[in-house]
Predict the structure.
Amino acid sequence: MSAQPTAAAAGTIGIGGDLTVNRLGFGAMRITGSGIWGEPPSRERAIATLRRVVELGVNFIDTADSYGPSVSEELIAEALYPYPEDLVIATKGGLARPGPNRWPADGHPEHLRQACEGSLRRLRLEQIPLYQLHRPDPAVPLAESVGALAELKAEGKIRHVGISNVTEEQLGEAERIVPIVSIQNRFNVNDRHSQPLVDLCEQEDLVFLPWAPIQETDRRVAVAAAAERRGVTERQIVLAWLLASSPAILPIPGTGSPEHAEENIAAAAIDDLSRDEMEAISKGG
């Protein structure tokens, strides 16, 4: 029986010039309850999932204060603190959570400060390695929201700043205020509207964190064919496709199951997608 592949098989990627992580991370949204609200069905299983991904070489975990809210961050600290030296925890602020599956933006500087300081307490960190604006708030000038993160960075509470759910124009505006090291937008085989931002990340040495990386995998015949040829799952193929699509991409698939986490991480070892397979998957064949 072959050994379980680890995240190290995907190689490494640099963040901000001073952090290096394995290029397959973990998104910690789905370790919460239904609607990303409240406690998970099994707290023990959620903790086991977090510990298992770290055992398998994942050293980049992405979360947010809005996941639960607060629950994901609390579970990360409970499961993993004191943290391994190489573990990079990224979190986000800028959303309010009035109820399950409800995600209104709140980019007011005072809210972002409270959110960041709350994340520091829950994660038991003195400094957050990567703090991201979760989504621009149309009711607040982007310069004010990003300016608040710049202030928190100057105070040492944030090491690096990232932004999420943005356009190219918004990225440019943010970069004029504070150095940006990452972008987190929706991106997968069926939604590549952010391809120009992926390209920009390559050009500017930024990290692109695709959210919803493995959704809707059943729509592509080429994905199914590639999976069948290798005896792997379609989800593993689309993760391998992401890794092969751009050296700037750091996939962060999420789950509340240790077994599903193992399956996702095993995709790091799939490095033989041919050019024809890549093109067929990209074109929807």
The two ends are 33 Å apart (CA to CA). The first helix runs from residue 43 to 55.
